[in-house]
Amino acid sequence: MRLIGLDLGSKSMGIAITDSQQTIVSGLENFWYQKQNLHICLNKIKQLLVYYTNDVQAIILGYPTDVNGKKNSQTLLVEQFYNLLVQNISCKVIYHDERYSTKQATYDLKFNLGLKSSQIKKIKDKMSAVVILEDYLSSLKWSKL
What is the pTM of this model? Predict the structure, then answer.
């Protein structure tokens, strides 16, 4: 069963997915939407669940907080989206700490792949979703040790 990773921003949502064995994470897309219109994001997730029929175990939703772990305006938006998801889909939704995921993705794209800022802007959200999903999978492995 697959996992879908989400990095929700105020105007875009990065989407990543695992393979069926949950070993490889791939970025799917940067999904741009009208500012804070979460119903458009919900419809996108519903489309993905239809496309990957009966093969998605859970959605891993990046949970943003500030450096001290306190909530901010983005945290409240993600909590609102979480509630929308659990009320409208049957798939399990799990929060996962996303602090530094965008910074990590941007760093990797810039310094490891040598991409320019204009190229990074187009894919950083889906790559942040990849970081969130990889971190979630890593935390599962560590919890089993």
Answer: 0.90
